[in-house]
Amino acid sequence: MNEVFKALADPTRRQILDLLKNRDMTAGEIADHFHMTKPTISHHLNTLKKTELIQDEKRGQYIIYSINTTVFQDVMNWFFGVMQSNPIHKGENEK
Amino acid sequence: MNEVFKALADPTRRQILDLLKNRDMTAGEIADHFHMTKPTISHHLNTLKKTELIQDEKRGQYIIYSINTTVFQDVMNWFFGVMQSNPIHKGENEK
DNA sequence: AAAGTATTTAGATGTTTATCTAAATACTAT
DNA sequence: ATAGTATTTAGATAAACATCTAAATACTTT
After folding, report:
1. Which SMART domains does the entry link to (chains A, B) (predicted)?
2. Which of A34, A82, B1, B2 is the most buried (most CB within 10 A)?
């Protein structure tokens, strides 16, 4: 879970997720959207893959990346948890 | 927005938010929950404050910290955006 | 005003991380 | 098999970050 948050902390990696939400893409296509070398993007893809935020599939000489929304559920749950303050103490902010 | 994600990337800072979701706390009370020096916690509090994930209020010799859920909305919106894949292309993952 | 408590600021240090270039691997097509 | 294309691995470097100790600031109480 900590690894997921760390993965999301980088703007390039979040942009990759934004790209993949529209359609699956090869590593090269993804790299073409950035002003960075392919090895750098490959590193970011690997970071995302390790957290299972994305998955890859080899097709011929290409590797196709796609988003995996399963892990997002967990992150969302943490957010919901934080946003539901304890009602006994809620309102103290306004004092 | 990038600063918010970077702030959330540290486990100690997320734990601070977990503490503050229950009740407001002084800097000292927060620090007592961790095996770290007070300056270190102070630094984390400052990072959270800069992103407006928390706010502080001076009361006498204490400084009371509280959570600010406003910013969480923005982060949540990003997540919702990523999780709604483009329907035209959705389903290609299963191929 | 002096002493005590709460918190932050300053400065230093070791670790992690984003990025690069160069080289390696893997597949395709001639 | 050779050449070409796609992608990753390895190794290096510089910047960012978490943490510490020591010192400073600010408030309270005697």
Report:
1. HTH_ARSR
2. A82
